[in-house]
């Protein structure tokens, strides 16, 4: 409708008395500006939002053109193409769940021709090491020359989800205490050394252990009164030397260097006298000493049967375990080599640190392929005295 026509129409309405409030501009209504597109804001030029698991992001929609008059009519519903990557609620709030990518879409509920989408990228969160922790007993430890300590097994690197939890180990004096790449310590000579553990992730986190290595000045055995011994298998009885091969586990602690605890080797059989005893090759041979109460100790002494110096009668590798309930045994020291030379009467083995157990278990881990039995004359447990 042109201007002249509008004037004529208005004039006619006035003349007829029908006009009351004036004439409106129909062209302004017909030419009203409406929304033609929608998009997520703050998504960057690549239309990607980067988050980490657990992060949230509240989305916003931009409606174009800016002067559209129907913006207030728009409402939305939101969807995630993969809710294992992220979820979105009815307000458009996104919560990152796990590493990956998925599409966020906003659908116009009043105009089905309108929608917007963007990519939600959930990245793996990178955590740096915040601490390296070692038990208090290792922070300052006095021990003997010639012991091994698996310090690496005692180290805890936090947090558990740090991206790189590897640790490097170094010794301030390798001639006193040597440490390998895995944190295994070997004491070499009397002296003091500091073991430093440093995180490999670049965070600069460190921890230290002070190792004081001392010569051994002496040994004190525990009182064996009230001790009892049990063995994994029947013990051998030998009628030819009944005073030596008694068939009783307590021969191990009877104070008699001539008698011995005699056990058949795995994969062997004893048939010389009754009872006949056979041990399968995959069976574990061991003895357990019940000390009747919890004791403190840091060494053991194994005495070979010296009245017969044949090496094949001697166990050559053992492992030690402790327990306070007689059922659950904790490793104290494993794969200990025992000299079997004919001129070696007894072997003293110090532990890295004090132990506190009621039950002491020794497993036989190595032996000669020849011969049928392994014989230990006497066994003591006790404490080391260090030189000043």
Observed structural traits:
3 helices; 8-stranded antiparallel β-sheet; elongated; 45% strand; 388 residues; mainly beta; 6% helix; 28 strands
In short:
The protein is mostly beta strands and 388 residues long. It has helices at residues 3-16, 26-30, 136-139, and strands at residues 37-40, 48-51, 56-58, 61-64, 76-80, 86-88, 93-96, 100-108, 115-122, 131-133, 140-144, 148-150, 156-158, 167-171, 177-179, 184-187, 191-199, 206-214, 216-221, 228-231, 261-264, 269-270, 277-278, 285-304, 317-323, 330-337, 346-366, 373-386.
Notes on the protein architecture:
This protein is mostly beta strands. It is 6% helix and 45% strand. It is built from three helices and 28 strands. The chain has helices at residues 3-16, 26-30, 136-139; strands spanning 37-40, 48-51, 56-58, 61-64, 76-80, 86-88, 93-96, 100-108, 115-122, 131-133, 140-144, 148-150, 156-158, 167-171, 177-179, 184-187, 191-199, 206-214, 216-221, 228-231, 261-264, 269-270, 277-278, 285-304, 317-323, 330-337, 346-366, 373-386. Strands 19, 20, 21, 24, 25, 26, 27 and 28 form an eight-stranded antiparallel sheet that branches. Strands 2-9-8-5 form a four-stranded mixed sheet, with no helix packed on it. Strands 11-18-17-14 form a four-stranded mixed sheet. Strand 25 and strand 26 (330-337) form a beta hairpin. The chain is elongated, with a radius of gyration of 42 Å. The relative contact order is 0.11.
